[in-house]
Amino acid sequence: MSRRPLACCLLALAVALMWSSPASGAPASRFNDPQPHRGGAEIRMTYLGETVACTSGLTMRRVEDGKRAISTAGHCAPSGTAATSGEFRFGTFVRSFQDDVVDAALITGTRIKPQQYAPTLWTDGGTPSTPVSRRVLGKVDGPVKGQKVCVSGKVTKLVCDIEVYNLTSGQSCDPDPPHICTQGLVLAGKEGETIVHQGDSGAPVFVPIDTEVDGHKVYGALLVGMLVGGGPRFEHGPADLVVFHTVKQVECALNASVMTPADADDPTPPPPRDCSGTG
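^ thats the sequence. predicted structure below, dont judge the formating
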């Protein structure tokens, strides 16, 4: 494969969702994600005779037709590759970019194999009180320096209190030829603690939001980006640094708009966004 997932070098808010049950009776989870698919799920792809795993990211609507889709890292698979999650079809890579400024891909269904995607994230795996999932309640173009964010990847699961160090100095490099390095990424970390593993690529990056709707507690998320890579700040140390694309970078690269509950039921294609000043 062209790149190992997550191999890098570093120097009125709520929506009601109906979840389908797996046909085999296996429970729905981030490793067996039924429609409508969520961010933070394990996705598997086979190409060039090898099966790789990554993590689903941000649910989006395409600018050209309003069709729902979901993002992941571009180095996970090339365009045309089919993705699955456990026993379920997940979609097909319809756009996949990996160059010096973009490492992002878009997955959606086809006419023969239609798929649905929801603005929800798998977040199990933190403290015992961590909710199984969070609803996407909003998005911002990107984080601010010093902000604490969370990542929810399929391997490391939920990790929070990751501090944003720099908004543009992050770099993720392919260990295999031609050794493409994606630059201009957000750099963040949690010193001394492993916060990512191979397979977490594409995971949503967010700030938790807890609120109440109609007297009921809602576990929400404010999206700030999508994970690209990670690694140690010191040789042989824990993988305590991450790099990620901002929401704006993902939207501009994929010509799609990150979905929130405000537009979840809107069939109208989102307007093209202003991408001036994007990496």
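Confidence is low (pLDDT under 50) at residues 1-21.
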